[in-house]
Amino acid sequence: MVSRSTTVSLPAALWTLLLLQNVITIKSFEVYWNIPTFMCNQFGFDFGGVNRTYSVVQNSNDTFRGNAVAILYDPGKFPALLEKPSTKTLYKRNGGVPQEGNLTEHLEIFQRHLDELVPDRNFSGIGIIDFESWRPIYRQNFGSLQPYKDLSVKIEKDRHPYWSAGHLEREVGSRKRHRLTLFNE
């Protein structure tokens, strides 16, 4: 016995599959493999066949950074609150938050890191900046990232001691967005 919900769902499912088939044939995407599999070769694991079978894009010779993919972990001098291991206290790197950071210094160091990590001037693969110190959207800095919000509010409160909490929050968001755009362009 087939329930009514099944008979209603089947045409909807078939219609969805038909629509998805058109989307899938029109849209394509590439899968990039950026795992240092060169380390696995010594144990007899070869990923070349898997990558060829599934058309996965990977660096030549299984390198971590290479001709197809280059991930840069925290390049330059992005503003950040970092933990001092000896005391477990936070200290400010380059102002701590984007609105206090020195963009010129960041870009100079970023260029040096880029030249070191991706020395091929003709690199045509994808470059990924892996940055995890804070989140670009102000309201998403909660939990372990709460100190970024707290510092941002303190900076604005020091500048405008008589503003309301709501006004301070709006100003923090506005200033951070503006400076963040400069750091990310």
TrEMBL record:
SUPFAM superfamilies in alphabetical order: (Trans)glycosidases
InterPro entries: Aldolase_TIM, GH, Hyaluronidase, Venom_Hyaluronidase
Swiss-Prot/TrEMBL keywords: Disulfide bond, Glycoprotein, Glycosidase, Hydrolase, Signal
Top-rank EC class of the record's enzyme: hydrolase
Keyword match Disulfide bond: yes
Signal peptide positions on this chain: 1-28
GO biological-process terms attached to the record: carbohydrate metabolic process; defense response; hyaluronan catabolic process
GO molecular function (one): hyalurononglucosaminidase activity
PANTHER family cross-referenced by the UniProt entry: HYALURONIDASE
Family under the similarity heading: Belongs to the glycosyl hydrolase 56 family.
Record protein name field: Hyaluronidase
Species this chain originates from: Anopheles dirus
